[in-house]
Amino acid sequence: MTAVAANPTKIGGHGPPLQGMIIRDAVEADLPAIVEIYNAAIRGRISTAQLDPVSIDERLPWFREHSPESHPLWVDEIDGQIAGWLSFHSFITRCAYRGTAEISVYVSEKFRRLGLGRVLLEKAIAHSSHLAINALVGCIFSHNEPSLRLFERLGFERWGFLPRIARVDDVERDLVIVGRHISAQA
Ligand SMILES: CC(C)(COP(=O)(O)OP(=O)(O)OC[C@H]1O[C@@H](n2cnc3c(N)ncnc32)[C@H](O)[C@@H]1OP(=O)(O)O)[C@@H](O)C(=O)NCCC(=O)NCCS
Question: Which pTM was predicted?
Answer without folding.
Answer: 0.92
